[in-house]
């Protein structure tokens, strides 16, 4: 039962870290032009 006092805060921190990483990626344009990447490989030399 004592392990829950460690696992619950660690899981909350992990979820927060994932959300911050996703927010950072969206804010810095990592998902801009995703539909063109699939066409780029077909149009290469």
Could you please describe the fold and organization of this structure?
This protein is mainly α and 45 residues long. The protein has a domain at 1-27. It has helices spanning 4-27, 34-42. The longest helix has 24 residues, at 4-27. It is elongated and about 55 Å long. It starts with a helix and ends with a helix.
Short summary:
This protein is mostly helical.
Radius of gyration: 19 Å
Helix content: over 70%
| Beta content | under 5%
What is the terminal-to-terminal distance? 61 Å
Q: What is the global morphology?
A: elongated
Low-confidence stretches: none
Query: Which structural class fits the helix and strand makeup?
Result: mainly alpha
- String of helices and strands: HH
The biggest sheet, with number of strands, parallel, antiparallel or mixed sense and barrel status, is: none
Mean pLDDT over the residues: 89
Q: Number of helical runs?
A: 2
- Report the strand count: 0
Descriptive tags:
45 residues, 2 helices, mainly alpha
Fold blueprint:
Layout: H1 4-27, H2 34-42
């Amino acid at each position: 039962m004592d392990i829950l006092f460690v696992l619950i805060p660690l899981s909350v921190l992990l979820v927060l870290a994932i959300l911050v990483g996703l927010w950072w990626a969206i804010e810095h344009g990592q998902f801009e032009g995703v539909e063109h990447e699939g066409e780029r490989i077909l149009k290469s030399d």
